[in-house]
Amino acid sequence: MKNKKTDEKSKTTKERIFDVALDLFSEKGFNAVSVRKIAQEVGIRESSIYNHYKNKEAILDAIIDYFMLELHGGEISEEKGTQVIEPDLEDPEIYLQQGTRMYLEQITTPKMEKIWRLVSIETFHNEKIREFFKKELLETPLKIWEDTFQMMIDQKMIKPLNPKILAQEYFSFPIYLFFEYYILRYDEDFDSFMDLALDKMTDHNEFFLKAIKNEKK
User: Fold this and answer.
1) How sure is the predictor about 186, in pLDDT bands with cuts at 50, 70 and 90?
2) Strand-pair partners of 158
3) Does the pTM of the predicted model rise above 0.85?
4) Domain boundary assignment for the chain
5) Residue 106's pLDDT band (cuts 50, 70, 90)
6) Which DSSP category does 101 fall into?
7) Bridge-partner residues for 213, per DSSP?
């Protein structure tokens, strides 16, 4: 507890505004939180907020900017494609393990979990966040997995199936887990998304590989 208090004291006012706003937005939704409420929780005057952020929307923009930096810091870019694994490896299981690890690492820090929760709430009535969600959670990962499965097919690691359908089938399970945790069961007693997802993703990978992997001759 002492270390936590020390960390809080070491934060700038702008950082404390950011953190408090994220806590409130992820709990109540963006529209339900006022600048006055944020200021009260931080322990400053409402007018002081505007010394650091132009308005409430600017705080949300800062949260999304932070999210993007963190997300792409550990993610495969579309340009890198399937280069996450050494090209001479021949076991498709390694690719799925890597994908699982990256997916979970992107959304299992406390701050990132709160932002994912915020994104899942605001998707329903915020066009900017809906487009962001569609691109970052659906379109980009699906393209990466399609390229990955095509590479596995080219190297005869897996059966010659449609790589786009494989990507959709494979990635639909992580999307289900996301929906289960961030929408249906978010308030239940989980330490993190990792606890919920890791075993399920491991079982999913094993099941999926049995269906698509080429049998060794």
Assistant:
1) confident
2) 213
3) no
4) 1-60, 74-212
5) low
6) H
7) 158
Q: Which two tokens stand for residue 59?
A: 């705080």
Residues 196-199: contacts with CB under 8 Å, at least 24 apart: 197/104, 198/100, 198/104
The kind and range of the H/E element at 167 are: helix 163-179
State whether residue 74 is helix, strand or coil. Answer: coil
Task: For 56, list phi and psi in degrees, rounded to 5.
Answer: -65, -35
* CATH class belonging to 1-60: mainly alpha
Two structure tokens written together for 76: 């495969």
Whole-number Å distance between alpha carbons of 107 and 194: 8
What is the residue-wise DSSP string for 111-166? Answer: HHHHHHHHHHHHTTT-HHHHHHHIIIIIIHHHHHHHHHHHHHHHTTSB-S--HHHH
Grade residue 2 by pLDDT with cuts at 50, 70 and 90: very low
- The predicted pLDDT at position 153 comes to 93
Contact in structure between 147 and 172 (CB atoms under 8 Å) = no
